[in-house]
Amino acid sequence: MNSKNEEGQQASDPRIGFFDCHAATWDSNGPKATDTLQRLKKLRDLLGLHEGENLLEVGCGTGQITAWLGESVRPGRVTAIDFSEAMLEQARKKQIEADFRCLDVCLDKLGTQVYEVILCFHSFPHFRNQNAALANMSQALKPGGRLVVMHLADRRHINALHDGVGGAVAGDHLPDQESWLRMLAAAGLDMTRWIEQDDLFVVQAEPS
After folding, report:
1. What is the DSSP string of 101-148?
2. Domain-by-domain residue ranges, the chain?
3. C-alpha torsion sign, points 100, 163, 131, 10
4. What's 4-207's CATH class?
5. 86: which of 20, 47, 80, 132 fits an S-S bond (Cβ 3.0–4.6 Å)?
């Protein structure tokens, strides 16, 4: 159970209100889900998804890629979490075969050695305590499992985008490589892949 201090941290996180407010129009105002999926399908080998894997999608939002993830790992299961209940409400309307849960990766326990894959797609910058999130996800990975953080844009673009939006997401940044190495090590993870291109950012890590 969360302590009162932890509950206060979650309640005071303005990002939750930001995403709750935008949930109903997220799919229509943001990048087209079809375009995103088309690009992801081309990166399937990079993601390395396999049938039978249990996958945790952290920051699933409105579930734009959740169905495709499920198809990629079936008969494995997808658990899709987000700290915005309004975002999850939109995702559930799509009747996707996944276990949607309202959880905060910075606070709520995700289990111990449960998942072969944990994917943070377009979500990691919004974790207010990135060190805590990494430690939590590390604990939830099975031995030999992998954490994948992915954005379909480069790190500087993502950081500038969030600063430009301002408000609750101003300062929600992807760290530089040196910071990633330090943070992953503290969480008991080893970086196995770093990609930073104009149209792609990927960090992959495995339990030490």
Report:
1. EE--TTTS---SS-EEEEEEES-GGG-SSHHHHHHHHHHHEEEEEEEE
2. 4-207
3. negative
4. alpha beta
5. 20
